[in-house]
Design a protein that fits this description.
Elements: H1 25-30, H2 40-53, H3 56-61, E1 78-90, E2 93-104, E3 107-120, E4 123-131
Antiparallel strand pairs: 1-2, 2-3, 3-4
Amino acid sequence: MKKNLHPAHAPCPCDSGLPYGECCAPWHKGMDAGIYAPTAQALMRSRYSGYVLGLLEYLLFTWHPSTAPGDLELAPVKWLGLEVRHAMEAGDAGVVEFVARCRDNGRAQRMHETSRFVREDGRWYYIDGQMHGAE
């Protein structure tokens, strides 16, 4: 696994306003110890931070086995920010709508997605996402 060098005191990449050590770091570091994101939104934020930090193992670990790719390769984009627009949970199902901003080959882009999550045995997983049109 790629070693995560993001300082715990630095702002979390997910734009929560919290230091990384109090936000996504516990979920990134806790997967082997059974410490998982407690909500669908927390998992979505930690996955965004995982993309920012290049944590492929974490991204695959949090992807539901029924929809997970066998392998994952990250595009060389620079992630610029995250806005969570809506998050809802009903029992063991969750939905999070977000906009992620990035720069790809020097060109600014926005990814607007509504992601679906499921909780199994107390652990949230990403299932899939519906992309929305360009903004």
